[in-house]
Amino acid sequence: MPTQQHQRAQSSASAVEEAKRAFNERVSKAREANPDIDMRVSDDVYDCKPSFTLPRDEYGRPVGYDQRNAIADEMIRSENPVGIARYLSDHPEEFEKIVKMGTARDIARAIAKIEDRADDATSGNPPSAGRSVSKPTSKAPAPVRPVTGSPQTESGELDDDAPLSAFVRRFGDRELKLANR
Fold it and tell me: Which residues pair with 56 in a beta bridge?
């Protein structure tokens, strides 16, 4: 009877085989449409190897895994691996920026953004970053201007350190002015 670990290994192996098959199919279609595609991919991008090609330690973890392996893993999972490879080849500074990222999650996000750009380019749409989105103009009237200004205060206001007699004198003067109106 197979152990649970053995079943997981078989499941993982079949998932890898399916991913490789799908990747090879996508690349073959791209080569049919554009036979010189291999010439447009840089050596740096070609040197990225997926993690399933790396040797394993006694715990089954890949030995020597780095960011380039994460890039290759994301390209294997991608719907448009050739578009990503071309983009990274055409933008070596972007490739180096991704290689210096800290986590596989950051790399996955960066590759997803590139995949969106590559999909837009192959579908004839302008790149997402360059699209101008026009906001609809409102037909509402302009907002009412708020009341501005500051309240009128008497000059020479008293502060907290003034003696009580100064406050009483000022309060009395104000009351007299109000009474004479």
Answer: 62
The pTM for the full model equals: 0.56
| pLDDT tens, residue by residue, 140-152 | 888 888 887 766 5
Provide the H-helix boundaries in the chain. Answer: 4-33, 43-46, 67-77, 81-90, 92-99, 104-123, 164-179
CA of 91: how far to CAs of 44, 86, 170, 179, in Å?
A: 11, 8, 76, 82
DSSP string, 55-99: -B-TTSPBTT--HHHHHHHHHHH-S-HHHHHHHHHH-HHHHHHHH
Name the DSSP letter for residue 103.
Answer: S
